Amino acid sequence: SRAIKTNQDLLPETPWIHIFYNDFWGTLLTHSGSHKSYRPLCTLSFRINHAVGGMDPWGYHLVNVLLHAAVTGLFTNFSRILFGDGYWTLIAGLLFASHPIHTEAVAGIVGRADIGACLFFLLSLMCYVKHCSTRGSSASTWGWILGAGLCAGCSMLWKEQGVTVLAISAVYDIFVFHRLKMHQIISALYKRKNLALFFSIGLLTSWGTALLGVRLYWMGNKPPSFSNSDNPAADSDSFLTRTLTFFYLPTKNLWLLLCPDTLSFDWSMDAVPLLKAVSDWRNLHTVAFYAGLLLLAYFSLKGSSNERECSGKTVMNGKQNANGHSCHPEMEYKTLEVKSSLASKEENGLKKHEIQKLQLPSTENIVILSLSLLIMPFVPATNLFFYVGFVIAERVLYVPSMGFCLLVTVGVRALYVKAQKRFLKNLVFCSTAALIVFYGLKTVVRNGDWQNEEMLYRSGIKVNPAKAWGNLGNVLKSQSKISEAESAYRNALYYRSNMADMLYNLGLLLQENSRFSEALHYYKLAIGSRPTLASAYLNTGIILMNQGKTEEARRTFLKCSEIPDENLKDPHAHKSSVTSCLYNLGKLFHEQGRYEEALTVYKEAIQKMPRQFAPQSLYNMMGEAYMRMSRLPEAEHWYVESLRSKSDHIPAHLTYGKLLALTGRKSEAEKYFMKAIQLDPTKGNCYMHYGMFQID
């Protein structure tokens, strides 16, 4: 809702330049309550969607699907660089295309930020690959690195993690293109022939530093702040709890990639219980995960064994494979199937960079790149440098899943090559095909959950019952299933009793069903849980005013009007509630005949009124107050303003008609009375005012 439905940056009357000053949710980026999610290119795509199709969701979903198709194509093309033409590239592409973890990013509209970032991530990486292959032999190489830098900047403007492509590019250059081992990097610094390599790495580092510096400056040099329910571990006072939980979360994320059996639209609150002691058995998962990760990285960086793979054929100690192609153990790369050796190609005048195009990286090189692609884009979500506003978010795994798919593919290839019997080779292939099919089926099933809000929230009950039941209550209420909605809200509060939003929503439901005493009780609980919840003050004041408790209502409205919007997640909604409080306070003064005080409050409301607030009723009441004070020109001005802001506002037609009749403009007055009747022929109040006009 906040990213699209109520985001003022999508509206044509809002200057498009505002997109570059506001966060993803339409809040000023430097505001203390801003989420600091700076994704202007994604918001711009939403604005284009809105300009073309308004709020029709079909167009938004179409763009997401097309973007995912484009990303899948680019990823498959990149896989060809690592695996060559053949089954392995196809397997990598199919794994990425079908992985269920992508469902949230593709089926959920706001997930477009991750897909768009991934698109430009891959474009940047492909540009850098071209730069590497043309470096030192073509002037176009600088155009390619410029393109890599620009695409990296665009990726970051889709979503923050996009900037990590610069680090991935450096890993590709060092470990894949130049095939350096860890122990060779230091000695390579002193070799003149590697000057171009380190110059390119320097450019990547400088550009990345500049992008991050500008990004930090643009958001006001302050990190975002989140509620304890968004990220409970970050709010924990225990250093041990924070450490154990933050170390465990990457393990949980990897499990979601490996076995996406249980997926949820929301993993906040208590969806992942905190690890509060070393004795928690989940710490074994953490140890196993990091041990496996370190061992895999160590053996990949250390170097390769004497056994080599050559285009999917096993080659031992320099012997030829079945196709007669030579593959020597001292080589640090694998070769494509070519009709002559590299030496003969050099003799025939092929340049070094042209020969390198025919070479495929070794398994160890691909593992290093895959691990980097899995880990580095995920680092911003680890709470390592700053706290994030979620525990787990499936959409965040969209970019890292590329590394996972490459790891699975290279692992399957290694098993296939080592298998000696045809039966075992077929088993490897069939198992991989089954995995792709299972992933695809799970994606289809999960898309069914995203078909509508009710199904989505019901699917999340077992993971995050408090949030799922609360959201489900909102859906059921919109369907007029009042008793079911009330039960859903109470279920949510059973799991988490201090949720201010749920307490407020339950109070609102009770108020709308004339259960005012119960509603007041829940509004007070909501205020106790979150003292800055202006909407709870507003509805409390309205109930008190209707019950004749005017002094209590006045104090409630005044208290609401004094709540600042600092550090609030949605300052626009808060300002709307404060404006409504002032409007109702003015009405209270108006009913007591205190018109001057009413006007003062109305003027304050106009000053605090946000852009999205509908002001017609406020303007009309301003006119009413001036009318009672016999200041007719001012009254006419505000009646006209009310009708200008909403041309079908019936109360303004009636009040303006009365003013016109009072000033002798009877024919004009009759038009406004008749217009009010046309707007709502069933409204008896319109006929009453018109009848009184006719009597006069």
TrEMBL record:
Keywords: Endoplasmic reticulum, Membrane, Repeat, TPR repeat, Transferase, Transmembrane, Transmembrane helix. Pathway: Protein modification; protein glycosylation. It comes from the Eukaryota. Its main location: endoplasmic reticulum. The keyword Cell inner membrane does not apply. Residues 221-293 form the DUF1736 domain. Pfam families: TMTC_DUF1736, TPR_12, TPR_16, TPR_8. The keyword Endoplasmic reticulum applies. One of its GO terms (molecular function) is dolichyl-phosphate-mannose-protein mannosyltransferase activity. It is a multi-pass membrane protein. Coiled coil: none annotated. InterPro entries: TMTC_DUF1736, TMTC_O-mannosyltransferase, TPR-like_helical_dom_sf, TPR_rpt. PROSITE patterns: TPR, TPR_REGION. TPR repeats lie at residues 466-499, 500-533, 534-567, 579-612, 650-683. GO terms for cellular component: endoplasmic reticulum membrane. It is an enzyme of class 2 (transferase). The chain crosses the membrane at residues 109-129, 141-158, 164-182, 194-218, 284-301, 366-390, 396-416, 423-441. It is found in: Endoplasmic reticulum; Membrane. Its EC number is 2.4.1.109. PANTHER family: PROTEIN O-MANNOSYL-TRANSFERASE TMTC2. Belongs to the TMTC family. This is dolichyl-phosphate-mannose--protein mannosyltransferase. It comes from Donacobius atricapilla.
